[in-house]
Amino acid sequence: MDPMIEAQLWHPVIAANQVRDTPVACTLLGQPLVLWREDAHGGHRVHAWADQCPHRGARLSLGRVLTGLHGARLECPYHGWQFGGAGRCEHVPAAPDFTPPASHCATRYEAREQHGLVWVRLQTPDYAGLASGPLAEPPVFAPAQDAAWRTVLCGPYQLRTSAPRLVENFLDLSHFGFVHEGWLGERGHAQVQIGVVEEGAGTDGLEVRDARAWQPRAYAGADSGAWIAYRYEVPHPFLAVLHKDAADGDPVSNAIALCIRPDGDEACTAWFVMATRGDNASDAELIAFQDAVFAQDRPVVESQSPRALPIGRTTPVAEVHGPADRVSSAYRRYLKRLGIALGTC
Question: How far is the C-alpha of 207 from the C-alpha of 115, rounded, in Å?
Answer without folding.
Answer: 21
